[in-house]
Amino acid sequence: MSNRLVEIYDVTLRDGTQGENINFSIHDKIRITEKLDDLGVHYIEGGWPGSNERDEGYFEEVKKLNLKKAKIAAFGSTRRSKVTCDEDANTQALLKAETPVVTIVGKSWDFHVTDALKISLDENFNLVYDSIEYLKKRVDKVFFDAEHFFDGYKNNSEYSLAVLKRAFEAGVDTVILCDTNGGSMPWEIEDIISDVNKKLDNPNLGIHTHNDGEVGVANSLYAIRCGACQVQGTMNGYGERCGNANLSSIIPNIKLKLGYDCISDEELKKLYSVSHFIHELTNLSPLKGNAYIGESAFAHKGGIHVSAVMKNPDTYEHIKPETIGNRRRVLISDLSGRSNIVYKAQELGIDLDTKDKRILDILKELKVLENQGYEFEGADASFELLVRKTLGLYEKQFHIISTRTIVEKRKDDEEPISEVTVEVQVDGQTEYTVATGNGPVSAIDNALRKALEKFFPVLDTVKLLDFRVRVVSSSKGTDSVVRVLVDSSDGVDDWSTVGVSENIVEASWKALADSIDYKLLKDNIKLKD
Ligand SMILES: [Zn+2]
């Protein structure tokens, strides 16, 4: 690795929150700050003090943290025209945030100066110069975001360059060239930065890009190759419109592809968990296909791929997933080959030879079930039961003989009551139980465990964590079936099971019965022992 250091400047908490459906409370922002510090980023832009109460509250709270490495930055703009920095409320709010770093954004496209700010080109020079000079006397570091720099440069390079010159004359630490509209292409970024480097004698430059041309990450990398010493972006690429440049991809690319220093190898291993932690707080659907940190980033489905990966992962993986804290997954589906089954079985601690004829039985069973609407990707426990049953490695400990589920609503303004009756048979003995629950799934769960606890007291520890219902179309085409995924826990392990039926209650029974089955299997509990 070369000694060259590229500093990571995270804008998830400011630019990232401009993204649709991205909302972080002050508490969320503080937790994210701690995680980003753990990840080893150099700067965290906390927000725009003076623009809203939430950001002001954040800067109050963040002072109490003991951060290991990251420096907090407050973001604002150059002073307004016609007032001094002392009189400018925005500038004063930046200082009140008491951060070691202040980043201000200013105009570097002449068209924006004359048509948006409606001031003279010279007056804009003064805004930039005064604001930087004033802040630099009062905080450790001042960064200047040159807004619309690349678009400005394409229209009037002389003016855009002159703005940068003023910023450096005023004592700015780094000027960040912004592709604010996100429409520039990598080759344009390369040409323009090379030109700036020549004309300004290799100044301290940073890069801030957006993803409107789907090249936010590429643009950042090109800028870094041209010498940029700071890169700005958001985790998971959140941001306005199509998002900001995605740090979850930029960071591993800097380390593993460009070979430059940014965060340590140990810190890089936290990339997956930090990225997913932040994503959890957004409540958006899971990150699947994202590069590096997506759950599918190292998931192999095709039988030929799996067979090769088992011999040597380099055959279908560009990096080792553990480097960034992700993991290799082998998916089981009707596209699976023998290797997928062998790999999964190994994960479950079952030694299977690729030539074992029983693998075909498992594949056959899988295909039948998938046709019915089953999916085992999110239901490892059900998959393990299927494999063990087919291999004759599991004996069912209980049988459900009959069930009745009643959902009754007695009054219009009352919540419905769910009641379940179940008859189970264990070792020749029959047991009847009735139980209620706040919904049919929890009533079934209560009834089943109550009936079986007499025989298997260990079920007392099992709890239903969550369940999800999906409508899937079966191969029959016309009738929809539902797939119920159940997450259970015994306080030590969590596991997921699946049930499919045209009837939601029946699908729930199957998933919950699998959950109990799995618990007994996991703890190696057999009644006859
Ligand atoms: Zn931006």
Features:
20% strand, binds zinc ion, 3-stranded antiparallel β-sheet, 529 residues, alpha/beta, 39% helix
Structure, explained:
The chain is α/β, with parallel strands linked by helices and 529 residues long. Helix content is 39%, strand content 20%. It has 17 helices and 16 strands. The protein has helices at 26-39, 53-62, 89-96, 110-117, 121-136, 149-169, 186-200, 216-225, 247-258, 265-268, 271-282, 303-311, 338-347, 358-372, 380-390, 440-453, 504-522, and strands at residues 7-10, 43-47, 71-77, 101-107, 141-147, 174-179, 205-209, 230-233, 299-300, 329-330, 399-408, 417-426, 429-437, 463-473, 480-489, 494-501. The strands form four sheets. It has an eight-stranded parallel barrel, surrounded by eight helices. It has a three-stranded antiparallel beta sheet with strand order 11-12-13, with helices on one face. Strands 14-15-16 form a three-stranded antiparallel beta sheet. Helix 2 (53-62) links the parallel strand 2 (43-47) and strand 3. Helix 1 runs antiparallel to helix 11, helix 5 (121-136) crosses helix 6 and helix 8 packs parallel to helix 9 (247-258). It is elongated. Zinc ion binds next to loops.
